Amino acid sequence: MPGTITSGMDVQAVRAMAQELTRAGQEIQQLTQRITALVTNAPWVGPDYARFTGDWNGRQAALLRQVATSLTDAGRIATQNAQDQEATSGR
């Protein structure tokens, strides 16, 4: 019945979700690296640049790396949960 929630796990759906979480984490990590390279190599000098790069390197990039890590960790946990479900159900 569509829309009905049942107990248990759709292992394939959880594996697909895990892959998407991992992919998103990797994309954010790559984006952070690209932006860091742009910021580092910007044709800009002076105190505003120093503040901008200090904020990027000290806070913004770190926040994005945390998000990327959280997503890849969630993907790893979802994959492990799917594996555990398969082992438990004997599939």
Structure explained in plain terms:
This protein is mostly helical and 91 residues long. The protein has a single domain, classed as Helix Hairpins (Orthogonal Bundle). 80% of the residues lie in helices and 0% in strands. Helix 1 runs antiparallel to helix 2. The longest helix has 43 residues.
Note the main attributes of this structure:
single chain; 91 residues; mainly alpha; Helix Hairpins
Task: Spell out the blueprint of helices and strands.
Blueprint: H1 11-40, H2 47-89
Helix pairs in contact: 1-2
- Estimated helix fraction: over 70%
> What is the CATH T-level topology?
Helix Hairpins
Which CATH first-tier class would you pick? Mainly Alpha
Distinct helical segment count: 2
Shape: rod-shaped
Just name the CATH architecture. Answer: Orthogonal Bundle
